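$ run holo --ligand "zinc ion" --emit tokens
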Amino acid sequence: MRRPQSESTRREHGGYGVTPVRTCVGCRRRASVGELLRIVAEDGRLVVDTRRRLPGRGAWLHPDLECLSKAERRRAFPRALRVLGALDADGMRHDVKRLAESCTDSGSSRIQPETRKQVDPS
Ligand SMILES: [Zn+2]
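-- output --
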């Protein structure tokens, strides 16, 4: 059994019901949830929900420092998470940086393939 590569790599249209798609709060581009990090607010801090199972609203972000700084500049996190007031982003920034580097290393945009089955309706 061989899979044609064009099928699995790029699927912008007609892929509904197969892979959930979210919009990155940094670059505003849409991507499958497997390519994005889920960011949630926890006790006034932003944290990366690596397992995508924390309760509440989530903001989606590419593991990319450029997307992160864009999102911070336009205050996308408080808006996406419906949080009033300041959010401490230090820990989240650290995690995104680390994940961005590990993604570059492997040459793949996928973070943890085994988390794909976790579907979050937020
Ligand atoms: Zn992005």
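-- notes --
Residues 52 and 118 are 7 Å apart (CA to CA).
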